[in-house]
Design a protein that fits this description.
- With 334 residues, the protein is of the alpha/beta class.
- The chain has two domains: 2-155 and 318-333, Glycogen Phosphorylase B (Rossmann fold); 158-316, 3-Layer(aba) Sandwich (Rossmann fold).
- Helices cover 33% and strands 16% of the residues.
- It contains eleven helices and 13 strands.
- The chain has a seven-stranded parallel β-sheet with strand order 3-2-1-4-5-6-7, with helices on both faces.
- Strand 1, helix 1 and strand 2 form a beta-alpha-beta unit.
- Helix 1 (20-34) crosses helix 11 (319-333) and helix 4 (183-193) crosses helix 9 (291-299).
- The longest helix has 15 residues, at 20-34.
- The protein is globular and about 60 Å long.
Length: 334
């Protein structure tokens, strides 16, 4: 079975810090290679993999603002489809654009839908619904207008996340700084609880950061750490009393949520999108409706046994399970 995996090129595969889609593609690629599949990864030229690496884009466009993203994504996708006949299946992790190439080749195309950026992209998915296969990453993120061959939850390499029995006294916000992710709400929760908050992640909305976040950062009670690489991520997640995830949108999955739980850290999240699927209520965290309920949940956080958080992830969100699920999908298609 020869598989071509099409990764995004916004970040390296695997990413140096931020890059959730690239992170999943990397874990899947390495897992497939370990299972003995013939895998070719189409990613940036600086990507690292045991699979065969095909690249036309020299580096991630998010790390070089002189690069035109549209130009390089055009070249990147075409680079794969011009070689489509060499593969038994193409697994697309590049959103909707590769679908427009799919009827020009005979190789089956599987697309993992990592979320819908807006309803405006649905016409593309609808057009190719009958000729391509779609995988959702949560049942909450499914569109009633589309057909799906499977739901495959994301998985993580549990070896990269150290279980920590004893927590420090800080709360943690870990993710991109953007209104969708609720960074301002995390600050409100911490302030009302009189707890220290560490904020880690890239600034995706600079205006939001300057107006809503930066005025509260004092580097004592509200601390902005910046982007965190793998080692820093493991330490920050493992030491937190709880991860705050007060999202304002329907989160398709939420990698930081399972990463925190893998370290033994419970999660307090707004009940939106996939959160009821990803968090075991009362076992690995709490689902709340607003800031006030989140404050109450922080007070009750000691009721969550940290070992249960780790167990929940081991049982449901390992990379081994994810790889096995995708192999089953490949076999079904081929």
């Amino acid at each position: 079975m020869k598989i071509a995996l099409l990764a995004p090129i916004a970040w390296r595969t695997p990413p140096r810090h931020y890059g959730p889609w690239e992170s999943i593609v990397s874990l899947l690629t390495e897992g497939l290679v370990e299972k003995g599949l013939d895998v070719t990864l189409f990613a940036t030229a600086d990507s690292i993999s045991r699979a065969r690496l095909e690249a036309i884009c020299p580096r991630p466009y998010e790390e070089d603002k002189q690069m035109d993203a549209k130009v390089w994504e055009c070249l990147h996708i075409a680079h794969l489809f011009e070689q489509a006949d060499a593969f038994d299946l193409i697994h697309n992790h590049y959103d909707f654009l590769p679908l427009s190439y799919s009827r020009l080749v005979s190789t089956p195309l599987l697309t993992t839908i990592h979320g819908f950026s807006s309803e405006q992209i649905l016409p593309v998915y609808r057009k190719y619904n009958s000729s391509s296969d779609y995988v959702s990453i949560s049942y909450a993120d499914r569109s009633p207008e589309l057909d799906y061959i499977a739901n495959v939850y994301h998985g993580i390499d549990l070896n990269q996340f150290t279980y920590q029995e004893e927590a420090d006294d800080y709360l943690l916000f870990f993710g991109r700084i953007h209104p969708d992710k609720g960074t301002r709400e995390a600050i409100q929760i911490a302030q009302q609880c009189k707890r220290r908050l560490i904020i880690a992640g890239i600034i995706q909305d600079q205006s939001y950061y300057e107006k809503q976040i930066r005025p509260h950062i004092d580097e004592t009670e509200i601390i902005y750490y910046g982007p965190a690489g793998p080692d820093e991520r493991n330490r920050l997640l493992g030491g937190a009393l709880a991860l705050l995830h007060p999202i304002s949108f329907a989160e398709p999955f939420g990698l930081s949520v399972i990463e925190a739980m893998a370290c033994g850290t419970p999660v307090i999240a707004f009940r939106k999108g996939s959160m009821p699927e990803v968090i075991a209520e009362g076992r690995s965290g709490y689902l709340v409706q607003n800031v006030g309920e989140a404050v109450e949940a922080v007070q009750d956080i000691s009721r969550i046994q940290r070992w249960q958080c780790r167990r929940w992830v081991e049982e449901n969100f390992s990379s081994n399970r994810m790889v096995a699920d995708y192999i089953a999908v490949y076999q079904k298609i081929i």
